[in-house]
Automatic annotation (TrEMBL):
Native organism: Stenomitos frigidus ULC18
Domain DUF2470: 10-85
SUPFAM superfamilies xrefs: FMN-binding split barrel
Record lineage: Bacteria, Bacillati, Cyanobacteriota, Cyanophyceae, Leptolyngbyales
Protein name according to UniProt: Heme iron utilization protein
PANTHER family: MEMBRANE PROTEIN, PUTATIVE (AFU_ORTHOLOGUE AFUA_1G04315)-RELATED
Amino acid sequence: MSESFTPQISDRICRHMNEDHAEAIVLYAKVFGHVTAATAAEMVAIDAQGMDLLTQVDGTPTPTRIVFDHVLQDAEDAHHTLIDMVKQARQSGK
């Protein structure tokens, strides 16, 4: 089994997502967080139940919590879940 969730794993995932997948985070905010006016977003935390984003709406930071459709087992599960979610978000056409 992969690593279980720790603050260090959350930080690592958030740093990677913010640095390499900023457009995916905006999609998460729009599609799963229902913040359709989001112009930017940052992942600030992730845990087994969901992720916390800070979205920008008209220049105003807006905290957004997105709950996963299942409890994540580990970092590998988070990786696969985030990929599946971005694919689903892109298919939604937002």
